[in-house]
Design goal:
Elements (H helix, E strand, L loop, with lengths): L1 E4 L2 H12 L7 E5 L6 H13 L13 E4 L5 E5 L6 H6 L2 H5 L4 E5 L5 H5 L4 E8 L2 E6 L1
Parallel strand pairs: 2-5, 2-6, 4-5
Antiparallel strand pairs: 1-7, 3-4, 6-7
Helix pairs in contact: 1-2
The structure holds adenosine-5'-triphosphate and magnesium ion.
The site of adenosine-5'-triphosphate (ATP) has 18 residues, from helix 1, helix 2 and strand 7.
């Protein structure tokens, strides 16, 4: 399914709709260039599950942010990892095989780890000032 987003707020609305399709244990790979809107999309997912009580921030200086929603949400950003060993060191497998929902920005950085799990993909492409959001 493909959506056209003309604003940050459109992307949040699309993400909130998409969030309704998610269930415990799902792993969502968020693909797209720097500034495409992956963190904005995550905000929409977090809003859906927290009913507005929590706000997603970019996990720039940590690899993962946790939201104590039901189910729990883990928001990862793999952009700055130097190797997949760093993910093994933080116990990535425990997150991936938990009942939580995992949302991962820059999944391309961890091809080996992600190869062995079932995932859903959301792709965000810049098109002028707009965004094309493709959900699997
Ligand atoms: N249609 C749109 N949807 C989402 N964001 C938009 C849109 N139009 C403009 N923007 C702007 O683009 C930026 C997207 O930033 P965001 O942090 O979500 O990107 P990102 O994909 O997470 O980048 P990074 O790879 O650096 O983590 C924001 O500044 C937002 O206001
Ligand atoms: Mg981001």
């Amino acid at each position: 399914m493909e959506y056209l987003s003309k604003s940050q707020n459109d992307t949040i609305k699309i993400a909130k709709l998409y969030a309704k399709t998610l269930k415990s244990g799902d792993i969502v790979l968020l693909k797209g260039d720097l500034g495409a809107g992956k963190t904005v999309f995550t905000k929409g997912i977090v809003e859906h599950f927290s009913k507005g009580k929590e706000d997603a921030v970019s996990p720039t200086f940590t690899i993962v942010n946790q939201y104590n929603t039901d189910p729990t949400l883990y928001h990862f950003d793999f952009y700055r990892i130097n190797s997949e060993d760093e993910l093994i060191a933080i116990g990535i497998e425990e997150y991936l095989y938990s009942d939580a929902i995992c949302i991962i920005e820059w999944p391309e950085r961890a091809p080996n780890i992600l190869r062995s799990v079932i995932t859903k993909t959301v792709d965000i492409t810049k098109q002028g000032g707009n965004r094309i959001i493709t959900v699997q």
